């Protein structure tokens, strides 16, 4: 019976559309592959974070397909209508402002919903800021952990970095240019013995890689003015001695939150924005960001 049901679904599958998750250039538009360009041209509509940003990519390759905003703020409310259009046979492409959707960008929620609805999803590969920065750093990357954006408050940054400190691999973070100096200062406090690389303006004319011991790099960037371009920070993996020490310290630490509710309460008490906290909880505990957001809203209502 299960097999027969599966075949029946497959027989109708061709009548449905397809959701294409498209990786776009992270800087240099020439990095767009022929497959990326063709997928966007073949789409009935392109969903994107910012129509102004994606319009530049479309113009560069003479692509004339309607653009519709579908960022984090409207993703949940628009998902059902997107699924209905896929059921109706439309080809829908989804792009973020740059890079691979779903990796510290909108998209994961939509992919999850489409797969649950037994709709076809394809991923069109594109440049990755994470991998490019890892290679550019020159650090060992047999193992690495991608954190994305840290919380904005130094206290929360320090707490999260401390929690990540015992991971036996490189750590990769995203940061905006106007906050990178402050973030590097926190990194220097948590990892005073680690090598750290700041990689910015990836694939662009002024691409830059600066690496040094964490305190030295923090001081160097603090002296810089008008730093531009999205930044990727790569923290080298701990030495065997540091890792052993961290693991011993972690075994005796009872202050770190161990449950979703504890981490949620700490985030709310620290004044974290609901969207940022939901993103952090989603990463830390493997729940959907929308579910984490709903829990935060419920928690705040119970406090009132």
Highlighted features:
304 residues; alpha/beta; five-stranded mixed beta sheet; 13 helices; 47% helix
Q: What is the spatial order of strands in the main beta sheet? A: 3-2-4-1-5
Could you list the spans in which at least 5 consecutive residues all have pLDDT below 50? 1-13
Enumerate how many helices there are, as a single number.
13
Instruction: Give the overall form.
Output: globular
What profile does the largest beta sheet have? 5 strands, parallel
Order of helices and strands: HEHEHEHEHEHEHEHEEHEHHHH
| Structural Rg | 21 Å
Count of extended strands: 10
Quote the beta fraction.
Answer: 15-25%
Average pLDDT reading: 88
Structural class: alpha/beta
The N- to C-terminal Cα distance equals 52 Å
What does this structure look like?
This protein is α/β, with parallel strands linked by helices. The chain has helices at 2-13, 34-42, 51-60, 75-87, 108-116, 129-137, 154-164, 180-190, 214-222, 240-251, 260-269, 274-285, 289-303; strands at residues 18-22, 45-48, 67-69, 91-94, 120-124, 144-149, 170-175, 195-200, 208-213, 231-235. The strands form 2 sheets. Strands 3-2-4-1-5 form a 5-stranded parallel sheet, sandwiched between helices. The longest helix is centred in the C-terminal third of the chain and has 15 residues, at 289-303. The termini are far apart. Residues 1-13 have low confidence and may be disordered.
Chart the SSEs and their pairings.
Blueprint: H1 2-13, E1 18-22, H2 34-42, E2 45-48, H3 51-60, E3 67-69, H4 75-87, E4 91-94, H5 108-116, E5 120-124, H6 129-137, E6 144-149, H7 154-164, E7 170-175, H8 180-190, E8 195-200, E9 208-213, H9 214-222, E10 231-235, H10 240-251, H11 260-269, H12 274-285, H13 289-303
Parallel strand pairs: 1-4, 1-5, 2-3, 2-4, 6-7
Antiparallel strand pairs: 7-10, 8-9, 8-10
Helix pairs in contact: 4-5, 7-8, 8-9, 11-12, 12-13
